[in-house]
Amino acid sequence: MAPDLPSLLVDIKPGIIDLGWGHPSPRLHPFDEVKEASLKMFQKGDNSPLQYGATQGFGPFLESLATFLSRQDAYLSNVDPHNLFLTAGASQGLDLAATLYADSGDTVLVEEPTYFVIEKIFREHSLNIVGIPTDENGIDTTALQDLLKNGLRPKFLYTIPTFQNPTGSSIDETRRKHLVDLANEYDFQIFADEVYQLIGFDKDTSIPMMSFDYGDKVISFGSFSKILAPGLRTGWIHSSKKVIDKFSDAALTFSGGGFNHYASALIKEVIDLGHLDSNVSNLKKEYLSRAVQMDKSLSEYLGGVVSYSFPKGGYYFWLKFPEGFDSDVFLNSAEASGVSYRPGNAFSESGKFSQYLRLTYTLFEATEIAEGVRRLSMAYRDI
Fold this sequence. Notes:
By secondary structure, this protein is an alpha/beta fold. It has helices spanning 31-43, 59-70, 90-101, 116-124, 141-149, 173-186, 241-248, 251-256, 261-272, 275-302, 327-336, 366-381; strands at residues 17-18, 84-87, 107-112, 128-135, 138-139, 156-159, 189-193, 218-223, 235-238, 316-320, 339-340, 342-343, 356-360. The protein starts with 16 loop residues before the first strand and ends with a helix. The chain has an eight-stranded mixed β-sheet, sandwiched between helices. The chain folds into two domains: 17-22 and 277-381, Aspartate Aminotransferase, domain 1; 46-274, 3-Layer(aba) Sandwich (Aspartate Aminotransferase, domain 2).
């Protein structure tokens, strides 16, 4: 293998506990379960997963996925497989959605702050990005309504409604309803990035955006990267039949068939064996344990310095430091102390989040999380 060609996306500097990466722990990947599913798939003697797949996705996979989603406490109880579409992960689905629902120069809306990769995707489509403020209850739909009344006309709004990246907040039910009402009144789509929907730590997780949909406005994006393994590069869209037909008729699918046909056939076996249910359950327990450890370490080492809300699910702690703190400037000091993070301004182009930084508790073990927070505190006390 060429030594200069990387094999993984994660590139952590030696000696650094990088709490910035929003990735799952490799230890938690269900290797044996996926291996069992692979053997089961091959033992069937069916080579159709090696052929071009249907544009909407592999039918048996969509049926198994609908059954799996319908039995999750944090999802709808009657998901119809005809309302699902296979993607090569949520980011790929969002990129395709941007192609289908907006043209160069159009205005689109994002939460402020938001997932930094999505702004890159939208910029690559030459879209005009406008940020909408958020608070502990998610996107401020009153502020959004004021902008719409004053003439703002977006093609779509991108939101992470549950366990938002980076803040960890969830949109409350009143705002979810209001958001769908505004989408119908002002004719824009809602791109709901719900990749954390199934990783809630209790049964109080907000119900998904499709519960509030009418007028074909909500397009929900899910991913197996957060609940199974990111290397499979597989996800789904859940929306109305009208929207699903639009995706199925896209040139990209019409030319090459459904995305990740082979991987979806494999995931179908994982679901049918019951391994996905057990894996989601295991992840929730493990991530809660790690979140508790991060909370304990923050209290021990940075108590009285930072403020934050304990996450109810997802991946992240969103820390606010005292006035005058600059997380971009502080990053060099932190890395010199052997720890890293994502600065607040990485999640917004406004420059309003210098006091904030994001920590992730999913990639590292509890002992490493504790040590990473200790190093962060030592670096802070040295500035």
